[in-house]
Amino acid sequence: MIFAEPQRLDQLSERLQRAVRNFNAAAAPPTPAVAEPEKAITVNATGVGTNVTTVERSPDLQGEVDRLRSELDHRSQLAQSLQRFLERISSREPEKTYQAILKHSMELLRAERASLWVFDEDSNEISLKAAVGFSVSTTEVIPNRMGEGISGGVLESGKAMVVSDLERAGLTAAPAERKYRTKSFISYPITMRGRKIGVLNVADKAGDDKFDDVDLSLLEILWSANRGCAGKR
Fold it and tell me: What is the pLDDT of residues 59-96, one digit of tens each?
C-alpha cells in the first residue's frame, strides 16, 4: 500500500465523503412519498391480531466511516512524515544526511537503535558511517567486505531482512559489548539506479515489540520516494 501518493489520498477522501453521505441518507427518517413502512402482524395476550409498524434498519455504515477516517488520518500523517524525511536528507553535508536518515527511520519505526553502513566500491567494503543508540564508537567497528556478516550479505543479495528472533533465525548475535536489548531487527539494502549504496539497520523496537513486514513496507515507501526525487534532480 502506497500511503503517500496524493492521488490515493484523494481517492480515499472521496470514498469517505461518499460513505458519510450514504450514512446520513440511510439514517434519515422515511417519508410516505418515498416508501410505505412495512406492516407486520403480531398477536397480543388476548389473541387479537394487531398491526405493528416495523422500521427498516439502516445499513451499518458507521463502522466503515470510522475506518475510512482513521485510514485517511494515518495516510496523511505518513505523507507529512515522508515530506519531512525528504527535506532532512536534502543536505549536501554527508554527516548531517546520515544522522537525518537514522533519526527519521527510528521515529517512523519506533526503533531505539539504528546504524548506517556505506559501501565503498574501490575496497569492496561497507563501513559504519553513523549510528544512534550504540554503546561503541563507529570508528571501533571493523568494516565488512561485501557478503560478510548480516549487512554485507543483505547488500550483496539486495534483499531486505526482517528478523523477529535472531537466534531462531540461526544468525550470530552481535558482540555482547554492543548491548542490544532485543533480538529483532531489520537490515535494509539501499540502492540508487541499480547501484549499491549501503545498508540501513534498525533494532530494539520500543516496548520490546518485534519488527515485521509492515515496518519493512514503511522503509520501502521512504526509499522509493527518495529514489524518485533523486532521479529528478
Answer: 577 777 777 777 677 666 666 665 665 565 555 777 88
The parent domain of residue 154 ranges over: 94-232
Rounded CA-CA distance 202/102 in Å is: 8
The CA distance from 9 to 71, in Å, is: 10
Q: What CATH number does the domain containing 172 carry?
A: 3.30.450.40
Site of grid cell 559504519? 128
- The pLDDT tens digits of the residues spanning 20-52 come to 565 555 545 555 544 444 444 444 444 444 444
Distance of CA 86 to the CA centre of its chain: 16
pTM over 0.90: no
Final residue before a domain boundary, out of 45, 66, 88: 88
Looking at the fold, whether 147 and 183 belong to one and the same domain comes out as: yes
As given in the structure block, the three cell numbers for residue 193 are 539506479
